Amino acid sequence: MAKNILEVQNLVTRFKTEQGLMKALDGVSFHVEEGELVGLVGESGCGKSVMSQSIMRLYDEKTQARYEGKVLFNGRDLLTLDEKEMQRVRGQEITMVFQDALSALDPVFPVGSQIAEALRIHQGLKGKEAREQAEEMLRLVGIPSPGERMRSYPHELSGGMRQRVMIAIALCCHPKLLIADEPTTALDVTIQAQIMELIVRLNKQLNMGVLLITHDLAVIAETCTRVAVMYLGQIVEEADVKTLFRRPAHPYTRGLLRSIPRLDGDKRERLFVIGGTVPLLSQIPQGCRFAPRCPYACEDCGRREPELLPVPGGEKDHLARCHKAADGQGVS
Ligand code: SF4
User: Fold this and answer.
1) How far apart are CA 56 and CA 78, in angstroms?
2) What is the pLDDT of residue 243?
3) Which atom of ligand 1 has the smallest separation from the CA of 298?
4) CATH 3.40.50.300 region(s) of the chain?
5) From atom 6 of ligand 1, which residue's Cα is the shortest distance away?
6) Does the first or last residue of the chain, that is N or C, have fewer Cβ atoms within 10 Å of its Cβ?
7) Nearest-5° angle of CA 141, CA 192, CA 51?
8) Which residues surround ligand 1 with Cβ inside 6 Å?
9) Which CATH number applies to 4-224?
10) Mean pLDDT of 132-149
11) What's the confidence (pLDDT) of residue 258?
12) Distance 228 CA to ligand 1 centre (A)
């Protein structure tokens, strides 16, 4: 059995604001196995990026945020490490790829020297050795003529090439976990497909766990084995990809799936839209957080907060946070 490389247990992230502490993540639990590709999906504002940045403890704990719960990485709780130990984890054992490669890369240095710098800092490589390894990384991520490209500045590369460079930097220290936060959002469709193919290939080739954060369910369907759906700082459904797409149990997941355009659908039919928007953290509804937007909401939903529970009669490890899914009534 593959072991869990990442195990998030009951993670709570509170932001310090002028109105006091606001809970942006509320009791999030999930895991990623060694070599597994897990998707995390939800609309903007659901807490996906807060989750990834909380795993890496990127919010300053003195001025910005407070964490509770456990983030077990290879059995070690990252929330208990001091900043020096955490710096060794970041960029070496866990790495991240963000959506905007242009702002993540330094505009005044050639990309080759930026990869070599990561190798110097995290691997202790020097001079020629670091440069040769950097070139090898460009080759690994499929950049043609890597020797020449080493000397290119970020603005001389296309969006897809820059994202490949970001992936090369992320992978140069052989991390055990890659967090890819909307890695293809800023790219056009064909380049998106190439970058996703690259991530899947490297996931298999390097047996590296990947947490893929996206709002694009189509990308999840093609790449992941398991998926967690987030809404307003909580996981509302989790299942293997086939189950989630065939038998979604939570009304929010159903809404997300219905809002994907279908090639075989009636072209005259309007695309489904989940009514309303994700509420502000200062206005979290009582009871079920999705109730104000849920077509199946009843009085009880506004009173009692649902727990994330196994779906009765569902596949193993299919969990949903909905009263109607939990009592076997289901929604259709
Ligand atoms: Fe909708 Fe009620 Fe289920 Fe919440 S608990 S998702 S409001 S049916």
Assistant:
1) 8
2) 95
3) 2
4) 4-224
5) 322
6) N
7) 90
8) 250-251, 288, 290-291, 294, 296-297, 301, 306, 322-324, 331
9) 3.40.50.300
10) 92
11) 87
12) 17
